[in-house]
Automatic annotation (TrEMBL):
Residues 86-300 form the ABC transmembrane type-1 domain. It holds the Pfam family BPD_transp_1. This is Binding-protein-dependent transport systems inner membrane component. Keywords: Cell membrane, Membrane, Transmembrane, Transmembrane helix, Transport. It is found in: Cell membrane.
Length: 309
């Protein structure tokens, strides 16, 4: 009788203080996270958006920060150096991300077929180590590996008869060096995400498919692919966003050089904002980069995740 009366009254509404704030403990536990998000994320974004519509030069603060409308955006879109840096970043993304996904898929398939539980657990732990390494440390490791005098890269290439190369002083080799370090750090991330997708495949279906055909490519395409597509979408979104804002490892390893060979868009924005001291222009460039990231993420969801659904 009491339960029927409770269902008739509907769900109980949370008690409120002063008619505004809910009394639920969950709300008060969320307040620190909301405050941190507002301070660390929302406020800098709003400040950058505000600065992008103003003339804000750190070297000339005496003249104030007058409102100039969309002049910073027009100057950015007509700046050939900006487009060169963006094109260089797009080239890096188009070359590096497919390699990371391919190697990650290969590693995920090996781990998925691995029979020994302890060996599988050890392999998973070892995959976390590169991901846990900070970007700045990855850049320092890259400087040591590709050093001309004592780098491991020249030692390994010397084993096959290739003379020592000045990796970080040659534009093409410097670009390739940054690619290699990024592939080393983030291929394990792709492998773990794809391995999680493979673990969702029903074992009975896999066993039946192996009885039907011995070709692993047929099993991958027809059975495992639908389970991999959601994880693949997450990889594309997260890694594309990371590559578009990639700064620490590149700046530590090459400083954007030699010349502008590794001056990606984030390095160029840093140069405009903190070497040319034009915060307004740098803010406009950062907002444009944010818009490009959102558009790219929506395209991934539209064309990759929709197929998975």
């Amino acid at each position: 009788m009491a339960s029927s009366a409770m269902h008739a009254r509907g769900p109980r509404k949370p008690t409120r203080y002063f008619g505004i704030l809910p009394r639920s403990p969950a709300f008060w536990f969320l307040i620190p996270a909301i405050a941190a998000l507002a301070i660390i994320g929302i406020y800098p974004l709003l400040l950058a958006l505000y600065n992008s519509f103003h003339q804000y030069k750190l070297a000339d603060l005496g003249s104030g920060t007058p409102f100039i409308g969309v002049d910073n955006y027009v100057a950015t879109l007509t700046d050939p150096t900006f487009w060169e840096a963006l094109g260089r970043t797009a080239l890096f993304l188009c070359l590096t991300l497919p390699i990371e996904i391919a190697l990650g898929l290969f590693a995920a398939l090996l781990l998925h077929r691995m029979e020994l539980p302890w060996l599988r657990a050890a392999a998973r732990v070892s995959l976390v180590i590169p991901m846990a390494t900070t970007y700045a440390v990855v850049g320092l490791i890259g400087r040591l590996i590709f050093n001309r005098q004592f780098g491991v890269a020249n030692y390994l290439t010397g084993l096959i008869g290739i003379p020592p190369q000045d990796w970080l002083a040659d534009p093409t080799l410097a670009f390739v060096s940054v690619m290699i370090m990024d592939i080393w750090q983030w291929t394990p991330f792709c492998a773990l995400i794809l391995l999680a997708g493979l673990s969702m495949v029903p074992k009975e279906a896999e066993e039946a498919a192996r009885l039907e055909t011995p070709k692993w490519s047929m099993i991958l395409w027809h059975l495992q692919r639908p389970y991999l597509l959601p994880g693949l979408t997450a990889i594309l979104i997260l890694r594309s966003a990371d590559m578009l804002k990639m700064f620490d490892a590149v700046f530590t390893m090459t400083r954007g050089g030699p010349g502008a060979a590794t001056e990606f868009i984030s390095v160029y924005i840093q140069r405009v904002g903190f070497r040319l001291f034009d915060q307004g222009m740098a803010s406009a460039q950062a907002i444009i980069l944010l818009i490009l990231t959102i558009v790219l993420s929506r395209l991934y969801i539209r064309f990759v995740y929709r197929e998975a659904a």
